[in-house]
Amino acid sequence: MVKIAEALHRRWVQAVIVLVVWFATATVLKGVQTQELSTASDSPFTAFLREVASTIRGNRADSPIFLYFLNPIRAFISGFIEIFMGVIAVPAKGDVIPMLGWFGAMAVIGLIVYATSTLRMALFSMFMLLLCGMLGMWLLTMETLAMTIGAVVLSLAVALPLGVWAGLSDRVMSVLRPWLDLAQVLPTLVYLAPLALVFLIGIASATIATMIYSIPICIRITAHAIKSLRDGPIEAAQSAGSTRWQVLTKVQLPMAKSTIILAINQTTLAALSFVVIAALIGAPGLGKPVIEALTIRNVGDGVVAGLAVVFLAIMLDRSTAAAVNRDKSGYAAAEAVKVRRRIGLAIFAVFTVIAIYLSRFVLWFAVFPESLDFREPIANAANALSEWITDTFGFLTVTGSEQFTLFVLNPLQNVLANSPWWLTLIAITALAFILAGRTVGILVFILLALVMGTGLWNDTMLTLTMILIATGFVVLIGIVLGVWAGRSRRVELFLKPFLDAGQTMPAFVYLVPVLALFGPTRFAAIVLGVVYASPFVIRVVADGVRKVPRETVEAAVASGSTNLQVITKVQLPISRRSILLGVNQGLIFVLAVVVIGGFVGAGGLGYLVIVGQSKPELAGKGLAAGIAIVLLGVILDRIAQGRPQKSRQGVH
Amino acid sequence: MKRVGKGAGLMVALATAGLALAACGGGVNSDAGSSSSSASESSSSSASESSSESSSEAAPVDCGSWGVAMHAWVGYTASAQVLSDVAREKLGCDITQTQLDEASVTYDAMEAGSVDVIIEDWGGGRWQEWVDRGAIVEVGYNGNIGLIGMFVPQWMCDEYPDITDGTKLNEYAELFVTPESGDKGAWYEGPPGYTTIGEKIIEAYDLNFKVINTGSEAALIDVFTKGSEDKTAVLGYFYEPQNFLAQVPLCRINFPANDWTDAAEASGLTDYPETPLVKLATLSLMDSGSPFAVLVQNFEWTNEDQNQVAANIEGGMTPEEAAAEWIAAHPDVVAKWLEGTGAS
Question: B18 vs A353: CB contact, 8 Å cut-off?
Answer without folding.
Answer: yes
